[in-house]
Design brief:
The complex is a heterodimer.
Chain A lengths: L1 E2 L8 E3 L20 E5 L8 E5 L6 H16 L3 E4 L5 H11 L4 E4 L6 E2 L5 H10 L1 E4 L11 H12 L2 E4 L8 H10 L3 E4 L10 H8 L3 E2 L5 H5 L16 H13 L1 E2 L1 H8 L3 H13 L3 E4 L2 E4 L2
Parallel strand pairs in A: 4-5, 4-9, 5-6, 6-8, 9-10, 10-11
Antiparallel strand pairs in A: 1-7, 2-3, 3-8, 12-14, 13-14
Chain B lengths: L6 H13 L3 E5 L5 H7 L9 H14 L14 E2 L7 H5 E2 L4 E2 L1 H4 L4 E4 L7 H13 L1 E6 L2 E6 L3 E6 L18 H12 L1 H4 L3 E5 L4 H5 L8 H18 L13 H7 L4 H13 L6 H15 L7 H9 L4 H6 L1
Parallel strand pairs in B: 1-8, 1-9, 2-5, 5-8
Antiparallel strand pairs in B: 3-4, 6-7
The chains are: A alpha/beta, B alpha/beta.
């Protein structure tokens, strides 16, 4: 395991006896008796929402996590996650990108960076956000520490969003904990053929709230939504045709747009570039999504 | 072309054939990358007499001519396996002979499973691709084999092939995926003009195909038109195709008006493109304009060309 250059002085501790202990975390059945942290502890007592999901994620999932992170952070909500690969990483990144608040809860000692590839992200969160752990410094990540850690993630938060989860994903444990703690659970629906969304779709069947529009969650937690300008009004006629075609299917390929709109691939590709520059769609690995 | 669907790919391939632009096909297993690559040479114009002679000379030196094929009249298509040794690809040996690279002269060099080639082999390709020739220095003397090739590379998104696919589970570890992708991000990919994401054709789409699709013949006609324009324009410049434009020639033939320049600037800021892509985008846009027999490069030509740099994103994002 890689140790980050965190000096011992940066690491502070807090117990439930202290006023600064995160408000909502105090209320769960088994609050950690001691928390180690680096960064601004007050973020954890702010209005928090967790963004969690599988480490292996689709481009769609990553995009949802990133957008959700941005959107929540823009509205001054703290984004809480576990700093794992995939969805977690993108949730943090989204929040950091707009200069928002974010909290990472680790399943290992606070001076240990797991996964090592997220070292840079960890440094950023330490600087602009908060890194938390119930394990003493130097504690190595073990298979059981992560599920245990998940109770803290859901415990800190008013609501938990599961962006993508396979059928046996660890994020389903977070959802279970959130339910035990009486917190709201949102799941991002996906195609029923998509293996990355089987877990989240199952959650919806079990009673989780489906997150249909990103801004839904903002309304539910009582935040005034900042209105995005009417994008569609700014599009040219042919751009609007392509935009609508993408909007109807949510996730399409260039070939699909060609056959639907009866336009040549060259024309469609040109329009996609322009739409992407206007920030209304996003394309990756051959698929095109609506952003706004 | 016996390729059903794939309008996007067909369009890209038409552009690549017309301007001799190297192309990188990226997609899931079974999406048709290999099938498309194998058909690129069929939409390109036939070899001219001079081209044919030059290619024949290389085959003669390599001892690849036979009684059935005393002269090379078809565009070569070379498809070396990824286990190929550097010398076999570039040329060399005790008695130096041309490698696969030179044998693909004026034709297609197809490298399937691109990241599986050894790093050393790929690095060796860099210089020859730029110089359009290989120089081999040995004690017995130095020799130079020409190699003006259309590089077609194909790759899966990861080793198992299904990273990001919604119907299969990827079994690679994150480290495996990173390693695989790092092979692609190298300077070699920067030297390929166009990236295309090949998507699998859905069965339903093929069946319900009432939409008129382009045939190989039509594509070839388009290519021929653009090639004729380029031959005429570059008569005195000693080059044949847009992909060969030097920065000096680009100033002369690829003029962008003020609006287009602003558009490019904005595109590079918003779309996370690498700086090296700039020249390539303009060259590809030149070819797109030629396909329409348009004298000027318009903004929508640039917009389309920008789409063919979509993989740059994968490396800038993280």
């Amino acid at each position: 395991m890689v140790k980050v250059n965190t000096s011992v002085d940066d690491i502070k501790t807090v117990t439930p006896l202290q006023q600064e202990y995160p408000k909502l975390l105090r209320l769960i059945p088994d609050p950690p008796p001691q928390l180690y942290y680096i960064g601004n502890l007050s973020l954890a007592s702010n209005l928090c929402v967790a963004i969690v999901g599988a480490r292996k994620a689709s481009e769609y999932g990553k995009w949802v996590a990133m957008t959700l992170g941005k959107r929540l952070a823009e509205h001054d909500v703290t984004v809480v996650s576990g700093m794992a690969m995939g969805i977690d990483t993108y949730g943090h990144k989204g929040a950091l990108e707009v200069g928002g608040k974010t909290v990472a809860v680790l399943g290992c000692g606070i001076d240990v960076c797991y996964p090592p590839s997220n070292r840079k992200l960890k440094e950023q969160i330490e600087m602009y956000g908060l890194v938390l752990s119930e394990y003493p410094p130097g504690y190595q990540p073990l298979p059981y520490t992560f599920p245990k850690r998940n109770r803290i993630i859901s415990g800190l938060c008013h609501s938990t969003v599961i962006v993508e989860a396979g059928i046996a994903s660890g994020s389903l444990i977070t959802a279970e904990r959130a339910a035990d703690q009486g917190r709201n659970i949102y799941a991002v629906p996906g195609n029923i053929t998509n293996i990355y969304s089987m877990g989240t779709n199952k959650l919806i069947a079990d009673g989780a709230i489906p997150l249909i529009v990103v801004d839904d969650i903002l309304k539910d937690i009582g935040v005034n939504v900042i209105n995005t300008t009417a994008v569609k009004a700014k599009l040219r006629a042919d751009e609007l045709t392509v935009y609508k075609c993408i909007e109807n299917e949510s996730e399409v390929t260039v070939d699909y747009i060609c056959s639907r709109t009866k336009k040549s691939a060259g024309t469609v590709n040109g329009i996609i570039t322009v739409l992407e520059m206007k920030g209304v769609i996003y394309s990756s690995l051959g698929k095109i999504f609506i952003v706004k | 072309m016996d390729v059903a669907g794939q309008d996007n790919c067909k369009r890209a391939v038409t552009i690549c054939g017309a301007g001799f632009h190297g192309i990188f096909l990226f997609g899931f297993p079974g999406s048709g990358k290999t099938m498309i690559a194998k058909r690129i040479s069929t939409i390109m114009p036939t070899l001219s007499y001079e081209e044919s002679l030059e290619t024949t000379k290389i085959y003669s030196v390599a001892g690849e001519l036979s009684e059935e094929q005393p002269m090379i009249i078809k565009r070569p298509f070379r498809n070396p396996h990824h286990s190929i040794s550097p010398v076999a690809l570039i040329g060399g040996g005790i008695k130096p002979r041309p490698g696969e690279f030179s044998l693909a002269h004026y034709g297609v060099l197809f490298l399937d499973e691109f990241p599986e080639f050894s790093r050393h082999t790929l690095e060796l390709l860099r210089q020859p691709l730029e110089d359009e020739k290989v120089t081999i220095n040995r004690i017995g003397g130095s020799m130079c084999f020409p190699g003006k090739v259309l590089l077609v590379a194909a790759s899966n998104p990861c080793r198992c092939g299904y990273n990001g696919d919604d119907t299969h589970k990827c079994v690679c570890s994150q480290a495996d995926i990173n390693r695989y992708m790092s092979r692609l991000s190298g300077p070699i990919l920067d030297r390929i003009d166009m990236h295309v994401e090949v998507m699998p054709v859905r069965y339903k789409q093929v069946l319900e195909d009432n939409y008129k699709r382009k045939s190989s013949g039509e594509m070839r006609l388009e290519v021929m038109g653009a090639v004729t324009i380029q031959r005429e324009r570059y008569k005195k410049e000693g080059i044949l195709y847009n992909s060969q434009l030097t920065p000096r020639l680009m100033k002369k033939y690829c003029h962008l008006d003020k609006d287009s320049q602003d558009f490019m600037k904005q595109a590079f800021e918003t779309l996370a493109l690498s700086a090296r892509s700039h020249e390539k985008v303009i060259k590809v846009a030149r070819t797109i304009a030629d396909l329409e027999a348009s004298n000027n490069i318009e903004m929508y030509h640039l917009a389309e060309a920008l789409r063919y740099r979509n993989l740059d994103k994968l490396y800038q994002k993280v």
